[in-house]
Design the sequence.
């Protein structure tokens, strides 16, 4: 694998693309020093810390902004069939929500309070629950838009 493909900026890709400076391991003069609950190394508090909690929502928002036009421009008809949309999303939310809850409570993974806004539902960040709604809807919009253009499926 190319070393360029392994490059992950310290502030994450959203912070990197938006030019947000992430905390570094060496605190700058006059900066407060704190620790993350799972990573005890000292970190400098920076503007990036404030933005870190919004990164997840920014990515989800970009997904929505990019795919919503498919409903109106290419006639995906996903939002126009709400019962079918709910019937499609319900098993996804239940299955992946249960999987995440199981893994989280078992200690297989965790969610940093610095990387989320802090609001939780059943122990998982609200952003994670939104992920289970936004990403499948975006996938459905894309699938339906491509299917309507291909003309191979009955509508």
Sequence:
């Amino acid at each position: 694998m190319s070393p360029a493909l392994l490059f992950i900026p310290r502030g994450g890709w959203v912070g990197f693309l938006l030019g947000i400076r992430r905390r570094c391991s060496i605190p700058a003069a006059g900066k407060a020093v704190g620790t993350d609950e799972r990573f005890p190394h000292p970190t400098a508090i920076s503007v990036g810390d404030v933005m870190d909690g919004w990164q997840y929502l920014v990515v989800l928002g970009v997904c929505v902004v990019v795919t919503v036009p498919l409903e109106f421009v290419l006639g995906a008809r996903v939002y126009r069939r709400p019962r079918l949309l709910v019937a499609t999303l319900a098993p996804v939310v239940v299955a992946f929500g249960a999987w995440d809850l199981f893994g989280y409570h078992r200690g297989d993974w965790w969610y940093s309070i610095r990387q989320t806004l802090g609001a939780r539902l059943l122990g998982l960040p609200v952003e994670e629950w939104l992920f289970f709604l936004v990403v499948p809807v975006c996938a459905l919009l894309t699938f339906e838009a491509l299917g309507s253009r291909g003309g191979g499926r009955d509508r």
Observations:
- The first strand starts at residue 33 and ends at 34.
